Amino acid sequence: MTPDDNVNQVRERVLQLAREIERLSQSDLPPEGFFQQFLNHLVGALGAKAGAVWMMEGSMRLTLLCELRLEETGFHENPMAQRVNERLLTNVLQTGEASTHSPNDGGDTQLPTQHMLILGGLSANKVCVGVVQLFQRPDAPDEARPGYLQFVEQMSGYASKYLEKRTKKVAPTAGSQFWNDFEQYTLQMQRSLDVNEVASAAASDGRLLLGCDRLSVAVRRGNKTSISAISGQDSVNPRANLVRTMAELAKTVISTREPLVYSGKVDKFAPQVEKPLANYIQESGSRMVLVIPFLESEALLQKDDEGGKKNIKPRLATGCLIVEQVAESQPVAGLEERAEMLADHVGAAINNSIKHGRIFGLSVWKFLGHILEWFHGRKLAKTLAILGVIAVIIGAMVFVPWDYRVEGQGKLMPIEQYDVFAPWNGTVESLLDPEGNPLPAGQNLDGKRVIAGQPLIRLRDKELDKERNEYEGEMEEKRKLIEVTRIKIDRSQDQAERIELQGQMQAARLRVINLQETLKIIDSRIESLTVRAPHAGVITNFQTEQLLSNRPVNRGELLLEIMDDSGDWRLEVEVEEQRMGHLRRAQIAQKNDSLPVEFILATDSESTYSGVLGELSTRASTSQNENKNVMQVFVTINRDDLPETRIGAEVRTKINCGKRSLGYVLFGDVVEFLQKRFIVWL
């Protein structure tokens, strides 16, 4: 079979599925059955990974009507997938246009999965009421995306015809459905007294109730008008051009207190309205804009003035609704009446929220109200019991003494420690065995036990070797010169010449003597290039061959560390600088510098050992493990109490500083923080 035959078969199969979807749209199946079969045919025709159909319900929320293999895409495993997906679906609902999204597109658009998404709108009575979503493999070629989009738009059109036909059959109940949705809408706004929350609920749910493309809520406070919410957006950026021009238009319309309806022409409006309206239309691209101001709530009871007449004040405009249509320039049937009705309810909810927010110290009064609620009715006994428990806890914190212990981290180390330094500048030639012979390649001095005077490292100074060779060559030349001069003296008959030759020979002899002394000094330096152990002990360095072999060193540079593990041991502990005051006060109070110390070894964390505080350093330093100031202290221990002694073993210590209140032991850090940050400045 040729490739053309395969292509023709695939094309014929896709056309057959498309015809089946068209026939299916003429059926009387219920929505669940229709869209499940519709989705099966559509996914099969495009070879997609999965698919889903989302529809608007009476609660004005997108719900999943049916799906096919959605769990295979990882949609349910991503906690952010639902939120990200709602934004994409909302965009399709607002515009009614199909779209595609791919992980390879770049930009800031987030996707719920790593698949290519194909979205198509489902409409009924020119209102987008649902979305078809297909999950295509991410490696699908970009050239196929226009074909996918066109096919999904065509199939979505068949599904929209099905919805149109079904809507006509249930038309008698449409009015009751609107009032049910309107009841839910007003209830949703009354669930909060926060202005932004009320505006967000009014915009998001009101757009679906009106069937418009975008609904925004503007609120006026004093002379400033701001956009509090826009449908389909979690937050409003006041610096965006769209929001700024919308706010300017809303401010102008609110000042007129009259509704504004734009349906394609701006020349019929007053000059003060025409310019901000034109700027906004140019920025938004909307073909129909309806702005309805809402006024502050009317008082239920009007007070009488001194003459017995009702004191009726003019109602101020406190905001407006901005209703927009993108595709059509004429408002849909009943839109203006419904929008005016919504404006009254939204205005009342917004005004109540503003008045509630003006209460001075509202958050404090709310907090006090929650507390006082516990002193009424059945909660009183529970409150008294809780207060009693709290009083007992506070009393225990203040009056119960407890051991206050300062914690520190350190190492288990021998007391006798010796550093081996480079005696001269040079290059490490080799590491040596106890007999002074070079160690074979691959062998180290790590952990080797050495004796005092044992050779460890041989250095080489090429400049010193060169200098010695030069002096040896010069001395050899002078010796030959002496020998030649002696022969000349023996052969010479001239007394003056012999005296001159004897002087030259004497000078050469003196130079030879000087060179011999110089060579002794150089040989002594060469001998000192063999680094020897200053004391018996164990070499504690690690990977000495890799660190030292063929390495140039300078005089006084640290090469090795030797520790005498056969003698006494101690703990070298780092204590935070801010804790040293507790140690000093404890030593003064107890008149004893030897405070008791408890410690545990990292190699034996189940056992606790004891020691005595010894020396304290006189200045702070920076910790090697953490970037903070620490003081080093030494703890005297009994080596025989430990099961094993390993050089550098990590230890955690607790130094007993006497008795303090239980509250200070538990929350001393908080007390010290408050003392340093606040009390000192009072």
Give a written overview of the molecule.
- The chain is α+β, with helices and mostly antiparallel strands and 682 residues long.
- Helices cover 43% and strands 25% of the residues.
- The model is unreliable at 170-174 (pLDDT under 50).
- β6 and β7 (224-230) form a beta hairpin.
Give the number of DSSP strands: 25
Task: Describe the strand arrangement of the main beta sheet, using strand numbers.
Answer: 11-20-24-22-21-25
Looking at the structure, the CATH topology of the largest domain is Beta-Lactamase
What count of domains describes the coordinates? Answer: 4
Individual helix count = 16
CATH architecture name of the largest domain: 2-Layer Sandwich
Give the name of the CATH superfamily of the largest domain: GAF domain
Q: Major beta sheet, specifics?
A: 6 strands, antiparallel, barrel
The percentage helix is: 40-55%
Radius of gyration, in angstroms, nearest whole number: 46 Å
Which term fits the overall shape? elongated
What structural class do helix, strand and pairing data support?
alpha+beta
The amount of beta strand, in percent, is 15-25%
Which class of the largest domain in CATH terms? Alpha Beta
Would you identify the regions where 5 or more consecutive residues have pLDDT less than 50?
170-174
The chain-level mean pLDDT equals 84
Keywords:
682 residues, alpha+beta, Beta-Lactamase, 4 domains, 16 helices, 25 strands
Structure summary:
The chain is α+β, with helices and mostly antiparallel strands. The protein has 4 domains: 3-169, GAF domain (Beta-Lactamase), CATH 3.30.450; 181-299 and 314-357, Beta-Lactamase (2-Layer Sandwich), CATH 3.30.450.40; 417-559, no CATH class; 567-681, Elongation Factor Tu (Ef-tu), domain 3 (Beta Barrel).
